[in-house]
Structure prediction request, 336 residues.
Amino acid sequence: MSTHWLPDTIEQWTARIFEACDLPRDHAAEAASMLVRSELRGYKTHGMTRLPSYVNRLKANEFNPKPAMTHRAFAGGIVLQADGALGQIAGPHAVRLALEALKTSASVLVVMQSCGHLGALGIHTLLAAEGGAFSMMGQHTPPALALEGFRAPAIGHNPIAFGCPLPGQAPIVFDVACSVAARGHILLAAREGKPIPEGWALDSQGRPTTDPKHALEGSLMPMSGYKGMGIAMMVECLAGAFAATAGSLDTPRGEAMQDAFLWLVRPESYAGREAFDAYMRQWTQTYVAAGNDARLPGARGDVLEREARERGMTLPAPIAHELIALGERLGVPFPA
Prediction:
């Protein structure tokens, strides 16, 4: 089995997998593009490794393959009802709505209701930055974080990201979960039979563990202790409370649908584009010049994506085998 594939080939195959799950062709193509681009940019825990779980959720009717997304807009804001859509469909749709709103507004906050797992949030904020806007995005998740001694997970690991255009260069894209490590890293370690570093997680008894299987039964630890908890709380306010409905408190927190927020700002509405661009160039040049290894977030992903599109992409053997099995199950053979 070859270890290199053309990204377009994997993207076309992934789209066919989504179509086999009853997604319309345009939605299947967009979801496939988002997953493959995440993989190419180094978001390994939120790229192709997620496809089997998304398929399982679509087959179990946890995600809606044919959502009828609706929205209501008002001054400075949009409420998007995603109708159970895959995050890879709802996220780009929210970005498009927000970019359109920025034509007549300096800023717009979109809250996303009934949205599937968004995957790597940085891919969505990258789209916004490529459209010329500063953006921030967060999604609340079921409780996952705990401090040592907690009896149970207390709050979601609530990922958050931002993207910002940088004149003449790839956009800045910063993407983190509020945990020390994303749950996806622990899932990957469990699949590969590898231990996780100390300080990542607690077992079901609230004790530190390096066993990924015990970690998946317990809790994630927040980055920087209580500081990470505080950022998770901010996301809970913006992505949870702002998107709440009358039935929100009656919905089990473990369900597949999780609300989110997306905030876009048009730079030229404030400092003006020329001053904004000049300032961005100056501070980023100062930053990069400060150390031999200094680089801006998003720069590595841009290089990885361009190289993969030129030379082909690779997949870890365990992931490739999972995709082969998935293709056999759905009658869509994985490309050789």
User: Anything to note?
Assistant: The first strand starts at residue 4 and ends at 5.
